[in-house]
Amino acid sequence: MSALLLRVLYENAQWKEKCLSPFTDPLCWKCQEERRDLDQGKITKLNITPPQIDDVDGKRCSGRCWEASLARYFEWGSDKHFRGLMAGMKVFLMFEEKNNNTKKIEYRIWGSTIVTHVNVQQLAHPDSSYRYWIRLKPFEPLPREKWSNPMSDRDILGTKWGQGFYRYIYDEVQVAILEKIVSGVTIEEAGIKPNLAQPAAKTKKLLLSTNIEEKVKEIADSQGRSRDDIIRQAVAEWLKKQE
Q1: What is the rounded CA–CA span in Å between residue 96 and residue 150?
Q2: Which of 157-177 are b and which e, b meaning 16 or more Cβ less than 10 Å from the residue's Cβ?
Q3: What gap in Å lies between CA 221 and CA 192, rounded to an integer?
Q4: Where in 10-158 does DSSP place strands (E)?
Q5: What is the pLDDT of residues 1-30, one digit of tens each?
Q6: Beta-carbon neighbour count of residue 122 at 10 Å?
Q7: In the sheet that 3-8 helps form, which strands lie side by side, from edge to edge?
């Protein structure tokens, strides 16, 4: 395991305090959608209290978002145990941006740091709604002009992200590419050829029985990994036993 990717909510106050005018900032689209879903009686998707529609004109967000203080407390929570995560692992922080032209979701890297503690229960963070937390080495978010250019999830992971808010990267080459991007190198210079406008390649899906598919999904979600990664590991371990 080489690095951890954290997909967090966008925060226009550098992840140190509540956003300003979240209902007029297009990058706050996920929180805006959460408010509309809540007002329409729909099931909400995020562990936040969304902003009000009158949070405009320089007003601080009236909602609650525990990630808003990520770069102040340097702690990130999950309701599931972080399996296999180790202190010293590189962390890349990113948020989702909606491209209104292509209607696709793009990713921007806004910072990086290192894991210092795993599955912590004693917290400095005032939000204790999660059971498991990791502590991060103190860092400064990149200024807006140094965020990465938009990338697709396939640019970063080689596959669709799907559910869950964190993923592991095992490819050392890909980790090196992301480190270059964080240092200020363009994604093209770092070795990524953006495919945001290209349809995902169709691949033949391995057919598994329903109960095994459900188990694979459960493991993938709990470990922050993709379905294909779980299957590749299982096949590799089975082949090794045959030697």
Answers
A1: 9
A2: beeebeebbbbbbeeeebeeb
A3: 27
A4: 75-78, 90-99, 104-120, 132-136
A5: 589 999 999 999 999 999 999 999 999 999
A6: 7
A7: 75-78, 132-136, 104-120, 90-99, 3-8, 166-169
Q: What is the pLDDT of residues 25-54, one digit of tens each?
A: 999 999 999 999 999 999 988 989 999 999
Q: How far, in Å, CA of 191 to CA of 207, rounded?
A: 33
- Global pTM reads 0.80
Residue listed under structure tokens 């990113």: 94
Question: Distance between CA 18 and CA 164 in Å, rounded?
Answer: 23
pLDDT at 38: 95
Q: What's the CA gap between 155 and 196, in Å, rounded?
A: 8
Phi-psi region of 187 (alpha: psi -120 to 50; beta: other; left: phi over 0): alpha
Look at residue 225 in the predicted model and tell me its pLDDT.
Answer: 64
d(CA 74, CA 94) in angstroms, rounded, equals 15
**What is the distance between the alpha carbons of residues 72 and 139, in angstroms, rounded to a whole number?**
9
